[in-house]
Each structure stands twice: as structure tokens, then as C-alpha cells.
Amino acid sequence: MKPDIHPKNFETVITCSTCGTAWPTRSTRQNLRVDICSNCHPFYTGEQRIVDTAGQVDRFMRRLQTSQSQQAEAARRREEKNKPMPKKPSLLQEIYGEETE
Ligand SMILES: [Zn+2]
């Protein structure tokens, strides 16, 4: 190696913050952290799982729930609006009761 042109190379550890697996390596940076690794990524494990990064799935589910409840509320209001009005008794019936014919 030519002197004074290469970056400093450390013996370091890569740590997965999801499953906690750590493996040694050499790198110009120290104490590397990764969000997901081959030990826990669904592609390698073969399991069906949603990898939630920064609460994206939670946020989507909250939005979905909000929109569904709004739609249900709108449908309820629409139904209430389209309901036929109760028949009003005539003025005579209101004054004299049911026996006016
Ligand atoms: Zn992992």
C-alpha cells in the first residue's frame, strides 16, 4: 500500500437494531448500526411480515381508520336525510284529536 493516501481502517462491529445481531468486520467507520439485516429481513427468513420503519404502517392504519369512520358517518347521515318524514296530522286532527272525520 502506498503510504498516506488510504483512509484509516478499523476493526469494528455491525449491529442490527431490529434483532440485535452483531458481526465483526473491517471498515473506515466504527460502530455501524443497520435497521435490518439478513438475519431478520422477511426476504431471507421467508416469513410474511410487515417491516415497520418509523411507524409508517401505524400512520397508514390510523389514516385508514379515520377515513373509514368518516365514510360510515357520511353514510349514516345520508340515510337519515333520505328517510321519509313522519306524516303530519292535519290541523283539524291536531285541534280536535283523532275522532274528527
Ligand atoms: Zn437483524
Overall description:
It contains three helices and three strands; from the N terminus they run βββααα. It has a single domain (10-81), classed as Rhinovirus 14, subunit 4 (Irregular). 37% of the residues lie in helices and 16% in strands. The longest helix is centred in the C-terminal third of the chain and has 27 residues, at 56-82. The chain has a three-stranded mixed beta sheet with strand order 2-1-3, with no helix packed on it. It is rod-shaped and about 115 Å long. The mean pLDDT is 87. With 101 residues, the chain is of the alpha+beta class. It binds zinc ion. Zinc ion (ZN) binds next to loops.
Bound ligand species? zinc ion
Number of alpha- plus pi-helical segments: 3
Overall geometry: rod-shaped
**Helical amount among residues, as a percent range?**
25-40%
Structural domain count: 1
The helix/strand class is alpha+beta
Spatial sequence of strands, sheet with the most strands: 2-1-3
- Uncertain runs with pLDDT below 50, 5 residues or more? none
The counted number of beta strands is: 3
Q: Could you give a short account of the major beta sheet?
A: 3 strands, mixed
What is the fold named in CATH at topology level?
Rhinovirus 14, subunit 4
Order of helices and strands: EEEHHH
For the termini, the CA-CA separation is: 115 Å
User: What would you say the CATH architecture is?
Assistant: Irregular
Rg calculated over all Cα atoms: 34 Å
Please identify the oligomeric state. Answer: single chain
Itemize the secondary structure elements and their pairings.
Blueprint: E1 10-16, E2 22-27, E3 32-34, H1 42-45, H2 56-82, H3 91-96
Parallel strand pairs: 1-3
Antiparallel strand pairs: 1-2
The structure holds zinc ion.
The site of zinc ion has 8 residues, from loops.
